[in-house]
Amino acid sequence: MAAATSERPESPPPGPRPIQRLQESVINRIAAGEIIHRPASALKELIENSLDAGATSIKVTVKDGGMKLLQIQDNGCGIRKEDLPILAERFTTSKLSTFSDLSRLTTYGFRGEALASISYVANLTVVTKTKADTCAWKACYADGSLTPAKAGATADPKSCAGNDGTTITVENLFYNTPTRLSALRGSSEEYTRILDVVTKYAIHNPHVSFTCKKTGNPSPDVSTPSSSTTAQAIRLLYGQTLAKELLHTSVSSSGKGKGRASSASGETSNEDVADAENSWNAEAYFTNANYQAKKTTLLLFINHRLVESSRIKRALEAVYNGVLAKGASPFIYLSLQIDPKSVDVNVHPTKKEVHFLDEDAIIERIADAVQQALIGQSQSRVYEYQTLLTGGIAEIPGSQKLKGKRKAREEEDEDAAEDSQPNGASKCDSLDDDQPASGPSQVAKRKVHSYQKVRTSLKDRTLDSMFPVTHPSQLKRTTSGGDEDNSPGTSETLPTVRDKEIKESQCFLKSVRDLRNAVTKAKHHQLSEILAKHTFVGVVDPARCLSLVQHGTRLYLLNHGALATELFYQLGLRQFGNFSRIRLDPPPELRMLIALAIDAEDGLGQSGMTKADAVDGNAPAQRIVDLLMARRDMLQEYFSLGISENGLIETLPMLLRDYTPNLDKLPLFLMRLGPQVDWTEEQPCFDTFLRELAYFYVPEPVLLPKGDARGDAEDSANEDVEAQKATLWQIQHVLFPAMARYLVPPKSLLDRDVVQVADLPDLYRVFERC
């Protein structure tokens, strides 16, 4: 066996593999992968082409993070029709013709590989028009050459309608490289990178208008005007919080001092001659020590080219190490202009890195200028801290110098000034002067006495606010309703307080705009501040709708019924044409409800009818039914009051979430719509209808139907108690928070509905006399 193994011939060692010339399509696809990494890198190349074309407006449209669609439209000089056949071929460019042109390069692109690389990994379409052309030309590209837009058509450019400039559409990016496509992040991550690229170029080119949005979105995510400045662009794109902390400095090779734009000396020297040959200048916008971010934001442009430089970033971060706290980072925008002869731009496939001469010296000069500017602002540090909950104000350090007789004399003057003020009246006379209240910026420098301290907080929340109480009438309707419904009016679950803003609906009717303007014009500023910053004390008389609230050191007695009427009127006006709905299940009959209201004598008195009208042969109930049925389309469209063709009340307008009106008042509300609403003119009709709707929503006492003799009196009393508890809970935890947020109180409420009953300083004087 061993002999047989030794006789087997040995296989020859493997030789070298033959060297083959790759196909042109493989070469181009490999090169495209080096330049186009993701949609953001493709957009960067296209934006630079638009800026090279002299565009003043650039619009970017994105779909699915740029993987399905990436379109850029500019108003630049356009592309000649004669150049379209070779537009997407590699190494075709209008920026240079010889290698020596690189030393004088002032444009973004120069290799002519961007469009070629895109055409090898995506479907590329170009629509362009120059000012000399009478029409635009559309061309489609695949693998670097023209391709027919449709099967059977020719590949030549086709004439079409278009504006001056160029529109480039990139579709199905990386459709033929599934590995690269699967390596990309989600569409939201890629769109964030696209917005970052657009934002950086918009800041560096404030004279160009940039717009970036997703397909289907009416409003753009980035939008900047043309003819702006760098500081204005930073404020628009990064916010006022960052912009107010910005510092600005300029430094150049000819400047003798750090941060100066030029030298003040007129003498020349050998050093000046050398600087003239290697001239450079830099402009920087950076944040001071008051701004602190979690990550350093560096926008670096060298010769208008967006690049990255780890050396510059480390040098600038070293400057901030002694200024910012640990873990805090700055925002820096740096634009560096260097003689093109001193810059090598051809060191990276995507041109995101460049090399330039005297790099260490230039970086040191820039870092020194930034440090000098930060030192100049060191005396204006701002620190935020929290004051006492009692309203105390931190004393100014300089005020500690007031000692002895001087301090005592000032306290005596303050007491004398307070004693000279008139005592608090029973009415809120101080509110008659319609003046805006002083803002928090007006800080008092004197000491806060005990009788001026406010010991309540607007953010306090009681435990009972977390457990809603439902009215018994709603519980009866939900249990006897039949089919289950998740609408607000018939849900079996208890309501929960939700913090959802009620937005003002968009309405173009002049009558509605006039009514809204009238509400705004009648606003009383000081009463608005009292309601917006009040602390609820309690309901003192539910039958007379009286409640107590505290604002500052004063106690006010309010008629919450009158305030609620104005609140619900304004909420109806605010949501005109865009109401939420309360669905009634089963829907009651309109005629039956109106007949019930007419049968009640008290209802007749409030509706303006007489007893004779009720028994008249003309049937007033039928007249009201006919009136509402004739206008049910208008009621449904404007007020969400749904009445079916059979005369059934299906839906009611919802004015305030988590608040359902007492449905026992529904018959009276429907009956009053007949005589109390002015149906002849548009504006009075809307005004009177909303007033009646507000009366329906007001939580005032309602006449209960007489109990049956066979009923249990004890059950009826328990039901009344539960109804009162539900009403009081809604007043405290739903109505008053809504008043603080939405009510624009008119001055007319001061006549009899808002009364000041106590003032803490006055009470202290009373007890001191006792």
TrEMBL record:
Composition-biased stretches (Polar residues): 471-494
The protein's name in its UniProt record:
DNA mismatch repair protein S5 domain-containing protein
Origin organism lineage: Eukaryota, Fungi, Dikarya, Basidiomycota, Agaricomycotina
Mainly localized where?
A: nucleus
Record InterPro entries: DNA_mismatch_repair_CS, DNA_mismatch_S5_2-like, HATPase_C_sf, Mlh1_C, MutL/Mlh/PMS, MutL/Mlh/Pms-like, Ribosomal_Su5_D2-typ_SF, Ribsml_uS5_D2-typ_fold_subgr
Q: Which SMART domains match?
A: DNA_mis_repair
UniProt cross-references to SUPFAM superfamilies, sorted A to Z = ATPase domain of HSP90 chaperone/DNA topoisomerase II/histidine kinase (SSF55874), Ribosomal protein S5 domain 2-like (SSF54211)
> Locations of Low complexity compositional bias?
250-266
Keyword Transcription among record annotations: no
What superkingdom does the record give? Eukaryota
Stretch list, region Disordered: 1-20, 249-274, 400-498
